[in-house]
Design a protein that fits this description.
The protein is α/β, with parallel strands linked by helices. It has a single domain (3-238), classed as Rossmann fold, CATH 3.40.50.300. Helices cover 39% and strands 26% of the residues. The chain is built from ten helices and ten strands. The strands form two sheets. A six-stranded mixed sheet has the order 6-7-8-3-9-10, with helices on both faces. It has a four-stranded antiparallel sheet with strand order 2-1-4-5, with helices on one face. Helix 3 (94-100) runs parallel beside helix 6. The radius of gyration is 18 Å and the shape is globular.
């Protein structure tokens, strides 16, 4: 199994955030975690990324237990995260932000070539970033910053790209554009796991969905089969 989250429990102090949660992602899929705010979606993503500790359970990536590893170790194993709110380096240029995405690569001649290839791929995916590569990231629109955050995460050619609320704060046009670009990334061979408040977009673009409710998974299934489900409809109306 490509990614397996098995019986994880997470507390924030004395508050139970995730209670014995399990789900999995197959290679080549787009999998979405949906549900209301505070349901535990982002916590599940952070547990995979090593940003929060689990009280019990484990996470496996390509058959290897990665629970307890530091985020920088997970990046080297092929996992990459686009955080909620983008968190671009505002005072740095677009190009410098992208280069920061490849900071773990050793700077040998061969690796420089690899970084150059990754940069070309990002510019092909997001032509506006090439046009504005010398521009300060803080002067970009929110949609352009989201493209930059995704491009930065792609600089290491991750096997698993994770995104936390990629549509948050974006105009409808940019939401459509971001999801179309994620589909392109997936079609090129990258597996995607995303947390998304916009349940309708998540259902449209994903292969499989897990519906969270108060620290637990209430429902899961093939996205196209769940579009008419009453519980999922309620989630869409509430998003």
């Amino acid at each position: 199994m490509f990614l397996e989250v098995k019986n994880i429990t997470v507390y924030y102090g004395s508050v139970l955030a995730l209670d014995d949660v399990s789900f999995h992602v197959n290679e080549g899929e787009i999998v979405a975690l949906i549900g209301p705010n505070g349901a535990g979606k982002s916590t599940a993503l952070h547990a995979i990324c090593g940003l929060v500790q689990t009280r019990s359970g484990h996470v496996k990536f390509q058959g290897e237990v990665i629970t307890g590893l530091q985020p920088y170790q997970l990046v080297k194993k092929g996992l990459s995260l686009v955080p909620e709110g983008r968190h671009v380096f505002s005072s740095m240029t677009v190009l410098e932000n992208l280069e920061m995405g490849a900071y773990t690569i050793k700077k040998s001649a061969a690796e420089h070539a690899k970084i150059s290839d990754s940069l070309d791929n990002v510019f092909q995916l997001f032509p506006v970033l090439k046009e504005r590569q010398k521009q300060k990231a803080g002067t970009l629109s929110s949609g352009e910053q989201q493209m930059l955050a995704i491009g930065r995460a792609l600089m290491l050619n991750p096997e698993l790209l994770m995104l936390d609320e990629p549509s948050l704060g974006l105009s409808p046009n940019y939401v459509d554009m971001v999801f179309e670009k994620l589909k392109e990334v997936n079609n090129a061979g990258t597996t995607i796991l995303l947390v998304e408040q916009n349940a309708q977009m998540a259902l449209e673009y994903s292969n499989k969905v897990y519906l969270f409710k108060i620290g637990e998974i209430e429902l899961s299934g093939i996205s196209k089969d769940l579009i008419t489900n009453d519980k999922v409809k309620k989630s869409i109306l509430g998003s």
